[in-house]
Design goal:
The chain is an alpha+beta fold. The protein has one domain: Jelly Rolls (Sandwich), CATH 2.60.120.620. Helices cover 25% and strands 30% of the residues. The chain has five helices and ten strands. The chain has a six-stranded antiparallel sheet. A four-stranded antiparallel sheet has the order 4-9-6-7, with no helix packed on it. The longest helix is centred in the N-terminal third of the chain and has 17 residues. The two termini are 14 Å apart.
Amino acid sequence: MITVLEESKFMVAREFLSQKDAQWIGEDFRKFCKKNKIKSNDDDVPNSQSVAGYYTFIEQLCLNVNRVTHYVEEIVLPTYAYGRNYFKGSSLSPHVDRDSCEISISVHLGGNEDWTIWMKPNETTRVPIELFPGDAIIYIGNEIVHYREEYKGEYYTQMFLHYVRSRGPHANHYFDNVMREESLCKKLGVEKPKRSKKLDPLSYDMKGVPR
């Protein structure tokens, strides 16, 4: 992984998307939520709308694999994509994400007011980040604490693209495998299979694959 991401646990990617693309993707998502009457359904973020697996976001998740690999300087595998519309009064409590979000990208798709996202790489440091439409913040989601204070505007739209490193400790989360396995076991009413030890991707016998 590149040094800047290892040390600070985040980096800003200006114009990750063009402003034009950010605008139409954001408008497309907001229209979808309005047409389908998506309700404020995220207990962790009051007064917001969230959708997992929205097709346009899945397209971006796949289209940007090589680009994210370039940023991280390690091959990454997609896990899942997520989108959220925030509204006046929304806030985001300090938290870290699950392991499927090892490499997370939060892309700003538009809003009518600026809204700071705070990154807290350690106990004594917090860094304010302002994003313009099309800008993204790339961060180690399962390690760095991040949050937002109360939003004063009317709407603010974000797209989240999540990846894991193909040779990293959370590689088995590719395509969100672990979450899907847990959901299926819960639905069937069976116990999740126990794993004897944590998977070490570097122990694979991959003949002919450069290490």
